[in-house]
């Protein structure tokens, strides 16, 4: 009998050591687990279980049911972030991504507040657990609006002036100021050519030619 005592004590010690190690955990881990359980129940559609993990199950039930009414057919996906614990309270950051019906996804960052209870951490039942901008007496509202029109590109400026015709020139021989026709045998004076141009003029025939 005296020899069995140490052996039995050693066996009990070996059996109980793993159990004690499994039960140990930090406050951050416990707060994270409580927040994760709440979000899993909410995103899974178990409103009663999610509300039961809060400080005020009745208020949380009304809040979550109102949210389901505000966003009909929508589902939420949660991604946990940083956990902070201080003096029996904790804050757990999380990112909400809503899959809305006939609308693009809606995503935002928020924070869950938790309080340490007698048995476990509890999520504080407040409107901000749904959206950080919600206050008491407020709820979400789904509205549809058309996107704003993009400004039309500037059109090239149009000038109202008439198009300018290309300038033309005609060679006109000089005439004598006193006679229109030269008699036979009379030498004609030397001719000089001058060029005239006008934006709106047309080519002129040579002087003295028949049309």
Can you put this structure into words, describing what you see?
The chain has helices at 4-23, 27-43, 47-52, 57-70, and strands spanning 75-86, 89-99, 106-116, 121-123, 168-173, 193-198. The chain is of the alpha+beta class and 211 residues long. Strands 1-2-3-4 form a four-stranded antiparallel beta sheet, with helices on one face. Strands 5-6 form a two-stranded antiparallel ribbon. The model is unreliable at 7-23, 160-180 and 196-211 (pLDDT under 50).
Largest sheet strand order: 1-2-3-4
Structural class: alpha+beta
Largest sheet: 4 strands, antiparallel
Beta strands, count: 6
Give the overall silhouette: elongated
As a whole number of angstroms, the C-alpha radius of gyration is 48 Å
Q: What integer is the average pLDDT?
A: 74
Oligomer: single chain
The SSE order reads HHHHEEEEEE
Number of helical segments with 4 or more residues: 4
Q: Uncertain segments of ≥5 residues (pLDDT<50)?
A: 7-23, 160-180, 196-211
Helix content, binned percent: 25-40%
How far apart are the termini? Answer: 151 Å
The amount of beta strand, in percent, is 15-25%
Give a quick precis of the structure.
With 211 residues, the protein is of the alpha+beta class. It is built from 4 helices and 6 strands.
Question: What does the secondary structure layout of this molecule look like, with pairings?
Answer:
Blueprint: H1 4-23, H2 27-43, H3 47-52, H4 57-70, E1 75-86, E2 89-99, E3 106-116, E4 121-123, E5 168-173, E6 193-198
Antiparallel strand pairs: 1-2, 2-3, 3-4, 5-6
């Amino acid at each position: 009998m005296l020899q069995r005592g140490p052996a039995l004590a050693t066996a009990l010690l070996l059996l109980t050591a793993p159990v004690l190690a499994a039960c140990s955990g930090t406050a951050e881990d416990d707060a994270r687990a409580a927040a994760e359980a709440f979000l899993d129940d909410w995103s899974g559609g178990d409103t009663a279980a999610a509300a039961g993990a809060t400080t005020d199950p009745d208020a949380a039930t009304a809040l979550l049911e109102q949210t389901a009414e505000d966003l009909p057919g929508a589902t939420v996906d949660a991604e946990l972030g940083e956990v902070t614990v201080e003096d029996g309270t904790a804050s757990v950051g999380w990112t909400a991504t809503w899959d809305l019906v006939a609308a693009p996804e809606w995503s935002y960052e928020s924070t869950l507040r938790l309080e340490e209870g007698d048995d476990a951490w509890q999520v504080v039942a407040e409107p901000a657990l749904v959206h950080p901008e919600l206050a008491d007496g407020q709820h979400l509202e789904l509205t549809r609006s058309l996107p704003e029109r993009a400004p039309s590109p500037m059109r090239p400026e149009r000038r109202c002036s008439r198009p300018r015709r290309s300038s033309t020139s005609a060679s006109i021989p000089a005439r004598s100021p006193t006679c229109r026709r030269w008699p036979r045998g009379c030498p004609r004076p030397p001719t000089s050519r001058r060029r005239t141009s006008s934006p709106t003029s047309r080519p002129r025939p040579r002087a003295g030619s028949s049309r």
